[in-house]
Write a structure and sequence with these properties.
CATH class: Alpha Beta
Low-confidence stretches: none
Strand content: 5-15%
Number of helices: 12
CATH architecture: 3-Layer(aba) Sandwich
Number of strands: 6
CATH superfamily: P-loop containing nucleotide triphosphate hydrolases
Shape: globular
Number of domains: 1
Order of helices and strands: HEHEHEHHEHHEHHHEHH
CATH topology: Rossmann fold
Mean pLDDT: 91
Structural class: alpha/beta
Largest sheet: 6 strands, mixed
Radius of gyration: 22 Å
Length: about 300
């Protein structure tokens, strides 16, 4: 199954301005020929191959992979991670989810807490929500910025467009630094419709096994949905770069969002051209000597 064209349609091409409304929230209009059964078969074969690539990544220790997932509430961020990364070795996978910053974190620059949990060489890192909350939530709720004690920001009225343009630049510079030092950054947005979010919220309210997932505070962000969409659109247009582009995935059909995410991660892994470390001639001699010792034990 070839997903290259579908992935290209999800790419926010660096340097070009996009309108978020031009990206679909459902897959049917773009990919009528793909069935859920086919996707499950593809995911299984893809995961088998990803396990091999993960093993090479860990053995080689030259690269790291950072998967950044952004979405509105109830878009399936956690389940996407669970399905796409299922079966991988948890030893070198680190998942971080960023909530409201602590007093310690507020005492540093906004990227500090994210820097602390970056994947080391040979590891896969996953940010469920990420450093981009600092140009999304704070854009819609600028009062949150007052807790950061920023120079020149004494009241909400001091927050202006130039502050976020500065942060876009800082994020781009940071991500470029990371990629130039061996980190592959994969950034995806699960593009869910407002109607689908309502459906998911209702399921959480009506299903006792999902009651714990619902937070009445989520309705606060739903009430300013259009403001968030505007913030996301501006973010994509400023931070989809050649070294770390954004992908906007249709997320109303969760199985397809997982499939698309898996395909993107799979393709990015393949670009790394990973391999097992080559053993030197001296080390090979030691291996052969060890083999002789072990074989002698059998006698």
């Amino acid at each position: 199954m070839n997903f290259e064209k579908a992935i290209e349609r999800m790419l926010v091409e660096p340097g070009k301005k996009i309108k978020l409304e031009s990206f679909k929230t459902d897959f049917k209009t773009e990919n009528k020929g793909i069935t859920r059964e086919e996707s499950e078969a593809f995911m299984k074969s893809g995961l088998d191959h990803m396990r091999i690539m993960q093993d090479k990544l860990y053995a080689e220790k030259k690269h790291s992979v950072l998967l950044v997932i952004q979405a509105m509430d109830a878009a399936g961020k956690d389940s996407a991670v669970k399905h796409v990364m299922s079966g991988l070795n948890p030893v070198n996978v680190r998942v971080a989810s960023f909530k409201a910053p602590t007093s310690l974190e507020l005492g540093h620059d906004f990227l500090w807490r994210h820097q602390l949990v970056l994947p080391a060489k040979g590891e896969i890192g996953i940010f469920v929500r990420s450093h981009y909350e600092n140009v999304l939530v704070t854009r819609v709720h600028p009062e949150y910025l007052l807790g950061e004690n920023l120079p020149g920001i004494e009241k909400v009225e001091d927050v202006n467009k130039s502050l976020f343009e500065m942060r876009f630049r800082q994020i781009n510079d940071w991500e470029r630094h990371l990629t130039e030092n061996g980190t592959t950054i994969i950034k995806v947005f699960l593009n869910q419709s407002k109607d689908e979010q309502k459906k998911q919220f209702m399921e959480r309210i009506e299903d006792p096994s999902k009651n714990w997932k619902f937070n009445i505070g989520d309705l606060k962000d739903r009430a300013v949905w259009d403001d968030f969409m505007e913030a996301y659109e501006d973010m994509f247009n400023h931070t989809s770069t050649a070294w770390a582009p954004w992908y906007i995935l249709p997320a109303d059909d969760r199985w397809y969002a997982r499939l698309a995410l898996g395909a993107i991660v799979f393709c990015e892994f393949n670009k790394l051209d990973l391999g097992y470390p080559k053993v030197s001639a001296a080390e090979m001699e030691k291996l052969q000597e060890a083999k002789k010792i072990l074989l002698a034990e059998e006698d």
